[in-house]
Design brief:
65 residues; mainly alpha; 3 helices; elongated
């Protein structure tokens, strides 16, 4: 299940301010229908880039000789 923009902002704020884990977020938001994997991937994205939006892939360019 994809996380909506509003829920993603809420999850980001809880993670950054209170250091909630994915399991803690599942217990805090049980009626939202979220899955552990979707929350975990969102938290991984927040840890790596600091944002909740998907960043474009960095493509490697071939060097000409």
């Amino acid at each position: 299940m994809e996380v909506s923009q509003k829920r993603a902002i809420l999850i980001k704020n809880l993670y950054l301010s209170k250091q909630y884990s994915a399991r803690r977020l599942l217990s805090e938001l049980p009626d939202k229908g979220l899955k552990f994997g979707s929350i975990d991937s969102l938290l991984t994205r927040i840890r790596k880039s600091g944002t909740i939006v998907r960043l474009p892939r960095q493509r490697q360019t071939a060097f000409s000789a």
